[in-house]
Design a protein that fits this description.
The complex is a heterodimer. Chain A has helices at about 1-15, 20-30, 30-45, 55-80, 90-105, 110-135, 140-160, 170, 185-200, 205-215, 215-220, 225-250, 265-275, 285-305, 310-335, and strands at about 175-180, 180-185. By secondary structure, chain A is mainly α. Chain A has a single domain (about 1-5, about 65-335), classed as ABC transporter involved in vitamin B12 uptake, BtuC. In chain A, helix 1 runs parallel beside helix 15 (about 310-335). Chain A starts with a helix and ends with a helix. By secondary structure, chain B is an alpha/beta fold. Chain B folds into two domains: about 5-235, 3-Layer(aba) Sandwich (Rossmann fold), CATH 3.40.50; about 260-490, Rossmann fold, CATH 3.40.50.300. Chain B contains 18 helices and 22 strands. Chain B has helices at about 40-50, 70-75, 95-100, 115-125, 145-155, 175-190, 200-205, 230-235, 295-300, 325-330, 340, 350-355, 355-360, 370-375, 390-405, 420-435, 450-455, 480-490; strands at about 5-15, 15-25, 30-35, 55-60, 65, 80-85, 105, 110, 160-165, 190-195, 210-215, 215-225, 260-270, 275-280, 285-290, 310-315, 315-320, 330-335, 410-415, 440-445, 460-465, 470-475. In chain B, the strands form five sheets. A six-stranded mixed β-sheet of chain B has the order 6-9-10-3-11-12, with helices on both faces. Chain B has a six-stranded mixed β-sheet with strand order 18-19-20-15-21-22, with helices on both faces. The longest helix of chain B has 16 residues, at about 175-190. Classes of the chains: A mainly alpha, B alpha/beta. The interface between A and B is medium-sized, with 22 and 30 residues.
Amino acid sequence: MFKLVEQQAKRIVSVPNKRLRWSIVRNNVYLPSVIASLVLLGLGQVISPGFADFNNIGNILAVASILAIAAVGQTMVIVSGGEGIDLSVGAVMSMGALLGASFIHGEASRLPIAVVLLVLIGAAIGYINGFGIQWVGIPPLVMTLIMTSVVNGFTVAYTKGQPSGAIPNVLLAVGQPIVGPVRWLLVLAIVILVAFGIIMNKTSYGKRLVLIGSNRNAALLSGISVRGTVTVTYMISGVIGALAGLILVGYTGNAQLQMASDYTLLSIAAVVIGGTKLAGGEGTLVGAALGAIVLTMLTSVLVAVGLPQGVRELVQGLTLLLILVAYSRAPRLRQ
Amino acid sequence: MNALECRRIQKSFGSVNALCDASLSVRPGEIRAILGGNGSGKSTLAKILGGVVRPNQGEIKLFDKTCSIRSPRHSKRLGIVVTSQELSLFTNHTVETNLLMCDIPRSIGVFTNRAKVKHISRQVMDELNLSHLIGKTVAELASNEQYMVEFAKALIQKPKILIVDEITSALYREEVELVKQMLFRLKENGTAVLFISHRMAEIYSICDSVTIMRNGETVATVGIQEKSENELLSMMSGRDVTDVIHSHTGSVAIADGPPLLMAPQLRLSRFGTQFDFRVQPGEFVGIAGLQGHGQSDLVRTLFGMRGPVHLKLEGQDLHVSSPRKAVAARMAFISGDREKEGVFSVRSLSENLAAVKELVIGQTGLAADAVLREQGVKFASAKQPIRTLSGGNQQKVVIGRWLVTNPKILLADDPTKGIDVQARLDVHHMLCRLIEKGSSVVFVSSDDEELVQLAHMAPSARILVMYEGNIVRVLTGLDITTENIISASVPRGAV
């Protein structure tokens, strides 16, 4: 997979004509992820027959859907530029899972109120992130890392570390199949992706966002409200994180402390694999979703190989490192 | 023997020729003035000697030995010290640490020898009457004191060749006198000095000879007593400059009636200066002067980039606290620094074009293709990213971004810097069309000729010449000539 990625990068570099080069970049930005997914799928089937059947693909897509949803917020934050990154996603998701379960308390009728509360809490967390970054001037990396421990602490304090009762069926339904490998989770993820795709590409907010990410000074001089727009972006990331936590609890059926902490790194990796530049200004949600599928496939294959957990995590970590190296190198070479 | 000899130095940045043919030789103990207008190549020459940039061609000889200066460190080892306008001080460190930054005395090879640091710095600072500054951090000092520290730092390095780049413009008279005495002492010890300054009086009192640069070339070197100020200025501009500005009653009209924009008591915070500024409707106001004398600060202050400012636009009070407020009042700002402040490089032409009109003012329905064609942008598709265009075409898109909003007043900070001749003319025509529609343009340029051309294209025009944060001369009518601009840019007589 990395070879493919590198070849891709090299091809991009070697095409002389700028316009031609652009069209290739544009047309092929998803290609590495698609090919990688297919290769991993084939590899899994070879190692463990039955890997590529409907049920397992359904499972993989379901898990990938949760990551794809979490990566929506991360994509928007990274696109906003200025070294924007949201390290609090994992903590916010864990919080969403635990608080969501606790708000619902086993009663399906309390689901709407739980959603509303989670949206408010997620927005508040995002607002604090945005305020710290835009008004106080704390670097995003530091601000959202601090927020991680604040949110984790808040979660433990609120739930007192106690499990919070049964998850109602209506929430558990997200993991249920509809037809073939398609589960409700996948439908939900697609709806969210389309909605935020429209927000990013068609609304005035989304257009401001990409311009700010591309050149913050030029945006300021154009009279674009940089602080407001960036803060709203962190708020969106907070809200999506909290709701993704609730969805996660629906899929797994139980909530645990820090259950989603891996999602911080995974969401960033998914965004980068999806062709979004860490420098900001451009990026797509579809790319991030494909990145989520690649990462989920990779984990599944490593599980199928039967490596012990320690080795699996090591391989996974090194793989992520390599992917980030391959993708981060490309833009610098192109300039 | 020459201390320094440069032969046919050539340096280009991309397509811009910063130096095309610079030759000079300086003897040990000679103080040589370098005189030249904006873009004449003085700073590039200083940077080459300082090892910051490397020349494309040419030969440098130090004490009759050919050498190529590889890096700032190498330059220092060769005995060249440059004091530059952009100070090389660490503001959070003390004066004495800064003075010895280039060669910190050590004890046992690793630890800073504080006693020695104190001793050496006290010696130099005493000579410069600045011993009271020892112990303070550079951030605590006034800007003239910082320049003196920069100068002291150069002295401590015992240069064989000292390049003083416009350091005196920030100093008071007594300090200039001290600098002069120190330079004379260096001279006795055989140091060669290149003295870059615009102050004629200083050049005459300090220097032995003067090299005049123009458009990247060294046009002449003469003994300082051989030429008068006017003769030097004529050589600098390539034309006849006379002392008195000829007054004509010109055909270029001065607009009257109620002003479009008034900025009473406009304060330039970097210089601490204050003046009234006004712009008439449909007027072209050119802002001229040597680089860094407040031209850029003027337009940026008006656009709310230097903190809140009180303006009167069409008689209405207007409090501009940010560029956003300025845009809301239909002001526009074009920066010459396209990369940093103009283009959204990874985004498309249409996105770049619509940035203000659609996203800030909130008007939709921009026909990108038609606008781009009208502005003479060479493009294939409005969807291509702007970075695929040439610099000139990029700037046309950025200007187009503002023209589609029909601004009442357009502020431009050297917008044609580094773009080719044709694109520059296109930009001029775009601005003229804007003026014809009744908007006003305030235009900063480091190219005096450009200002003169534009002023004569506009129905009514004024050129303001700035020096050290003040407007020192207002040119109108047929007085608007490059000679008059240059003459006003370089104040003569008293220091």
